[in-house]
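Support request from a user on the community tier.

User writes: "When I paste my structure tokens into the form, the page sometimes reloads and wipes my input. The last time it worked, I copied everything first. Here is what I submitted, just in case something in the input itself triggers the reload:"
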């Protein structure tokens, strides 16, 4: 791999960022092709070997809803879930938590909605009702010494409701923090966020007393704004970003969605800014090319495509 980013540090930004890798869960769950267990396990191990400190492994969701992750228990059984590398799993409810605890998982994530329509369509409840569903999950997980992360979807826009007000997102986020979430991942689920909107949302949280170190950003590149939004978030102090190796995944509610922010594209940008992330880009690109071959299509990542030609 000959090409490397030109490095010009931005001294106004933090010097280190944490990348929360979601390709093995959020990425593969949206693929039409079901990836074999052995390949999923190898994918996760390669991501760890590339230096990613957190790799979300799978989801204990009912296979009827996400058949691509029906093998969650088999995957987790072959991974060091109690080791130094965090390997979170998404749990939708108490039954999912039961399975996670049985498997010895030490990190879980729950998936909440900032809007009523998405809560109804994706969670079969209301915005208020989702907290009743999550409360016993938080209580039992925290009692068992398990860390709980909270995703908030539709933070910037909703395909049915349009623009989502920042105050609405902050209200949902604060309730999740009050329940015991260690971190909030604020999702631009359909990729409509812009740089100014990102800064406004983060500032709304800080004005409400939430420290930026409790916040993470989860961007989609539907309209080509993901990296611009990362930079806007960096400027207001965010240091944790979700991304997906090779740009795997997307949003089923946005037909034009091109997928999650690619980890390689994020790494390239961070490297150019002189920000430490701990990821070996060459190893990561090789891993994403390998997975693209398994899926039978080119990687959506601009950096993977560019480096594949060098």
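"...and here is what came back when it finally went through:"
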């Amino acid at each position: 791999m000959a090409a490397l980013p030109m490095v010009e540090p931005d001294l106004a930004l933090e010097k280190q960022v944490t990348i929360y890798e979601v390709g093995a869960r959020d990425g593969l769950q949206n693929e039409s092709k079901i990836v074999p267990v052995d390949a999923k396990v190898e994918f996760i191990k390669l991501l760890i070997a590339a230096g990613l400190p957190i790799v979300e492994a799978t989801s204990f969701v009912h296979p009827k809803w996400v058949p691509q992750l029906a093998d969650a228990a088999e995957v987790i059984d072959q991974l060091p879930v109690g080791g130094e590398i965090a390997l979170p799993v998404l749990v939708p409810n108490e039954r999912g938590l039961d399975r996670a605890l049985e498997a010895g998982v030490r990190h879980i994530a729950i998936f909440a909605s900032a809007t009523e329509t998405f809560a109804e369509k994706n969670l079969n409840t209301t915005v208020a009702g989702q907290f009743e569903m999550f409360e016993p999950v938080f209580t039992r997980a925290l009692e068992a010494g398990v860390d709980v992360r909270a995703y908030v979807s539709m933070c910037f826009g909703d395909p049915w409701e349009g623009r989502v007000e920042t105050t609405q997102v902050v209200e949902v986020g604060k309730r999740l923090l009050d329940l015991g979430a260690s971190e909030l991942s604020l999702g631009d689920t359909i990729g409509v966020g812009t740089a100014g909107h990102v800064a406004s949302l983060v500032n709304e949280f800080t004005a409400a007393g939430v420290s930026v170190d409790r916040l993470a950003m989860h961007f989609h590149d539907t309209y080509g704004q993901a990296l611009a939004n990362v930079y806007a978030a960096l400027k207001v102090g965010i240091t944790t970003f979700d991304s997906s190796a090779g740009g795997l995944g997307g949003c089923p509610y946005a037909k034009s969605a091109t997928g999650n922010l690619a980890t390689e594209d994020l790494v390239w940008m961070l490297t150019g800014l002189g920000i430490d992330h701990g990821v070996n880009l060459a190893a990561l690109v090789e891993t994403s090319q390998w997975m693209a071959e398994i899926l039978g299509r080119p990687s959506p990542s601009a950096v993977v495509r560019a480096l594949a030609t060098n």
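Agent notes: The reload is a front-end session timeout and is unrelated to the input. The chain has a mean pLDDT of 94. Residues 18-308 form a domain with the TIM Barrel fold (CATH 3.20.20.70). Escalated to web team.
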